Amino acid sequence: MDYFSFYDLPVSFHPDPAKVKQQFYALSKKYHPDFYINESEEKQAEVLELSTLNNKAYQLLSDPQKRLHYILELKGMLTEGEQYNLPQEFLMEMMEVNEELMDLQFDPDAAKLAAIKAQVAEISSTMDTMLDRLTDGFEGQDSAAQEETLKEVKDLYLRKKYLTRINDSIVKLDAVR
């Protein structure tokens, strides 16, 4: 059972936070282990498992990045060990940023680092805007449109993961200064 089904919600990149929280509290009460203290060990184990599932569902459905990854997995768009080819243009742009960051390791320059930070922040913001545009209304699309949307979302998701690694490098360089 997927987390959306568990919460009786449609698969959505933007579930209603109030409904997610409402389901979490309702199921927390329903599956609270203390209410099953006099039940058999099997029933207690089942309730504990459901309580754990509820906590995991809430954490995932409340976090946009985790939810995005989860939906892509749920829809079969992400597979373990998959070799995905990001667009060459994006890779070239990121290679230039990486080269600039490597240069800054040996020749620190606060102004250059600030410029790279701004560039990466702008790229990230543009991607976030594109993701929002793609994912708004996803649940109302027919299956063919959803399939196309998921392909585009996957591409942006993987680009953002790449960008996160670059941000990690920036943070390390910033900490050294």
TrEMBL record:
SUPFAM superfamilies assigned: Chaperone J-domain, HSC20 (HSCB), C-terminal oligomerisation domain
GO biological process: [2Fe-2S] cluster assembly; protein complex oligomerization
One Pfam family cited in the UniProt record for this chain: HSCB_C
Annotated InterPro entries: DnaJ_domain (IPR001623), HscB (IPR004640), HscB_C_sf (IPR036386), HscB_oligo_C (IPR009073), J_dom_sf (IPR036869)
Domain J: 2-74
GO MF term list: ATPase activator activity; protein-folding chaperone binding
Keyword Chaperone: yes
Stored Gene3D superfamilies: DnaJ domain, HscB, C-terminal domain
Entry-linked NCBIfam families: hscB
Summary of the function given for this chain in its UniProt record: Co-chaperone involved in the maturation of iron-sulfur cluster-containing proteins. Seems to help targeting proteins to be folded toward HscA.
Family assignment from sequence similarity: Belongs to the HscB family.
The protein, known as: Molecular chaperone Hsc20
